[in-house]
Write a structure and sequence with these properties.
Elements (H helix, E strand, L loop, with lengths): L26 H17 L5 E2 L6 E2 L6 E4 L2 E5 L2 E5 L2 E4 L12 E8 L6 E5 L18 E10 L18 E8 L10
Antiparallel strand pairs: 1-4, 2-3, 3-6, 4-5, 7-8, 7-9, 9-10
């Protein structure tokens, strides 16, 4: 529904349209309102949207885990908190061959506590092909591993840090949408 001003100084939603400062609604306030409406619509999309940054990094309790900090999300319009967690790379499918690059995606199911790590195919260094998260899971972010010449990364035993098998390691938070204060 489009908003418009009527002759009573009210918009079609019953909100006062006149302010002391500007005479009419502030354009910045209106922009903020529209942005928040868009954020709400996006949060209803499948599977959902992050509403704060997950802060991805290597694990703190174990060197072979992928950690994210507590963050918030909306899945199917329902807001909830995703607790901080560490997820282990233990599957042999998470290994990366020597002199290759791999991308991984960390996602969470709608319950907010079941995490999945999905690895893309090994690629030529410098090639970026992101893996897809499983259906109906919310992406928290991505990790990139580039291996050392002649040394592979073994997800079962190698630390998730530059050194043994890893030439470079990077974490990328998924984009998030945050509502803004209107007043």
């Amino acid at each position: 529904m489009a908003e418009y001003l009527n002759f009573n100084g009210m918009d079609n939603l019953g909100n006062e349209a006149v302010t002391k400062e500007h005479g009419f609604k502030s354009e910045v306030r209106e922009l903020r309102l529209q942005y928040n409406k868009l954020a709400q619509v996006v949060s209803l999309m499948m599977p959902g949207v992050l509403t704060s940054a997950p802060g991805l990094k290597g694990g703190t309790s174990s060197a072979i885990t992928w950690r994210h900090e507590a963050c918030t999300a909306k899945i199917r319009g329902k807001a909830f908190t995703i607790s901080a967690a560490e997820t282990a790379l233990t599957d042999t499918g998470h290994d990366t061959a020597h002199t290759k690059e791999s991308w991984y995606v960390l996602s969470v199911q709608a319950d907010g506590s079941t995490h999945t790590i999905t690895k893309g195919a090994d690629q030529t260094i410098g090639t970026i092909v992101l893996p897809q998260a499983p259906d109906n899971e919310l992406v928290l972010g991505y990790m990139q591993i580039v291996t050392i010449v002649g040394t592979a990364f073994d997800a079962n035993t190698d630390d998730l840090a530059v050194g043994t098998g890893i030439a470079s390691l990077a974490f990328y938070d998924a984009p998030y949408i945050e509502t803004v204060n209107v007043d």
